[in-house]
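User: Here's a chain of 70 residues. Predict its fold as tokens.
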Amino acid sequence: MNSKTIAVILIALGIVVLAYSGITYTTRGKPVNILGARIETTQSHFIPPVAGALVLAGGIVLFAVNPRKT
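Assistant: Prediction complete.
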């Protein structure tokens, strides 16, 4: 992938995170055994809008910068 493709992906991800005011997603946690019963747990993760703004800005900078080939 070239830098322009990565820049477009970063810009799109930044816009999505900002549009939803952050994104929350869950992953599997460690299973817990209590008195012989196995209980599955989940962990919740949050991507804040500030991270989306930083990714968006990084994508714009990467898109605007024209790398020189020597």
